[in-house]
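Page 47, continued from p. 46.
Same chain as before, 325 aa.
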Amino acid sequence: MTAAARPVLVVAEQLDAAADMVVDQLNQREVPVIRFDAAGFPTTISLTATHQPDAGGWSGVLDDGRRAARLDDVRAVYWRRPARPRIDDRVPEPYYTWAADQADAALLNLLATLPVRWLNNPHLDRIASHKPQQLVAAARCGLTVPRSIITNDPAAARAFAKHADAPVICKPVLGGRLDTGQGRPLMVATHPVGPDCIDDTVATTAHYFQERIPKAFEVRLIAVGGRLFAATLHAHSEQAATDWRTDTTHLTYGTTTVPDQVAAGVHRFLASYRLAFAAFDFAVTPAGEWVFFENNPAGTWAWVESHTGLPIAAAHADYLQGATA
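Result:
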């Protein structure tokens, strides 16, 4: 198979705007694309892979009955937050969970052995998503980070809030939503706290407190294959200023250039985790200082392109096609 005929494998949920935009860009370039949702494995997708000791890798086929991907032919993989594999509902517990874990491990770990371009290899995503380690890595890479404490000691939390030079915020150590069992899961938002608001319930689990950084605006910085795209978010409500995700109706968007020192730190950060894609969150203070909050190695960006016109999908296609380093 010629290099031009080798397909890009897209592993994403069926309803994913970012994956749709990347597939559209690849289609416009006449780059073959094979798209699967991991949720279809093993009920509607079959996978057969073999390894010969002298072959150097795994070979095989991923097939959903309508299209098939030969693992040997894949040129790149776009791993875009796919759903977990789903097992036939007739399988009872505890076998259902055991079977789902087996399917998840087989699909992820077999694909991860492919010696091709990744956006991103999920094993690297997992390591890069740890927030405490991100602060250490960002500081080592020359980025400014906020003072922080993770604790389940109410006294330590109150002391941190009391002695901080600025107000304090609390946010989750681990991202995700809170399933209350009453319909749509709730997002646990960043929220301000003061010493008098910190009570003994802090002892129930780990809490993540940071100094609250004064913001002229925030930046969602998308990195793709060595290119940086910076979108500005200007908040027009207190709620949006604290956590812009909670009040997007009071945001205005724009673009900005990334200062050379920040760009250099971001590139060092990406290299330290071996990431080709990342979504960074920064605050820019009234004095113009960029402060790193966190990085999501599988962060959303379709809305960034929609609001700003930044060519992020095209950058994905460039990288997956092999047009960039």
